[in-house]
Amino acid sequence: MESPVFRLSGVHKQYGEGEAAVLALRGVDFTVESGELVVLLGPSGSGKSTLLNILGGLDRPTAGQALFRDLDLATAGDAEITHYRRHHVGFVFQFYNLIASLTARENVELVTEVADDPMPAEEALALVGLAARSGHFPAQLSGGEQQRVAIARAIAKRPTVLLCDEPTGALDVATGIRVIEAIIEANERLGTTTLLITHNADIAQVGDRVVRFADGAIRSIETNAQRRKPSELNW
After folding, report:
1. I need a surface site. Which of 65, 153, 183, 218 has the fewest CB within 10 A?
2. Which alpha helices (H) appear in 143-215, and where do they start and end?
3. Cα–Cα–Cα angle for 132, 169, 161, nearest 5°?
4. Which domains, and CATH codes, for the chain?
5. Residues 127/131/137/139 CA torsion (nearest 10 deg)
């Protein structure tokens, strides 16, 4: 049986010192299996993004152990973390961070140039339903199309994990459905272990498990008996 992709034990994250200290994570214990789609659910400020940043190697815990397979993200050297981010992690944020002077294809190719075994940019764009828009610049694309380009860019390097922080937060319902469908497609077709942050309880139904956060701690972990399709949700 394949070992978990992530194992977190007693993870704390504190910002600041003394009276100004803010405890963003309070003793998080959590395991993510290979190929899972896990939804992190909770209000703003509950610790979801802090956890995702630690899992993505963008931040380190103040205390505790955060393992990606056998690599401890809490104690690994800077070179090891850089290698981890470059070769194993794909990020999708609420804002698309596309380069305005590059086409959709060229934005995706930025990632494929540094990956070991990249997916052709055209194939990644086709996977998110944008094959016909590959030659368009971001200004010529809708918000949802730009977000799907961002997803294509993230998955083009065939990452082990895809980390999505409120990817539908700036989108209308119909567009959000298409974006979530693209994330699910990547998870199912590529087997990419996926963590998706949202504050929308309905979106939580698309995952294998739902992890509910409040005040920097996990309050519950629930298993969905069956994934729901985004189009079936009451947005």
Report:
1. 65
2. 143-155, 173-190
3. 70
4. 34-59+79-232 (3.40.50.300)
5. -70
- The amino acid at 15: Y
Checking if the pLDDT of 175 tops 90, the result is no
Instruction: Please choose, from the candidates 187, 160, 151, the residue with its C-alpha nearest in 3D space to the C-alpha of residue 36.
Output: 187
> Residue 168's pLDDT is what?
87
Question: pTM of the predicted model, to two decimals?
Answer: 0.91
> Is the Cα dihedral 71, 72, 78, 83 positive or negative?
positive
Report the alpha-carbon distance of residue 141 to residue 202 in Å, rounded. 27
Spatial contact of 11 and 25, defined as CB atoms under 8 Å apart: yes
Q: Where are the beta strands (DSSP E) in the chain?
A: 6-15, 22-32, 37-41, 63-68, 71-72, 89-92, 161-165, 193-198, 209-214, 217-223
Dist CA 57 CA 97 (whole Å): 19
The mean pLDDT value for 86-93 works out to 93
Greater confidence (107 vs 199) lies with 107
Residue ranges in 32-114 assigned as alpha helix (H): 48-55, 78-88, 104-112
37's tokens: 């789609």
Closest CA to 50 of 179, 169, 195, 186: 195
Residue reference for tokens 């567009």 = 175
The single residue listed with the structure tokens 């992190």 is: 40
**116 confidence band (pLDDT: 50, 70, 90):** confident
Return the pLDDT at 235: 63
Distance (Å, rounded) from C-alpha 170 to C-alpha 147? 10
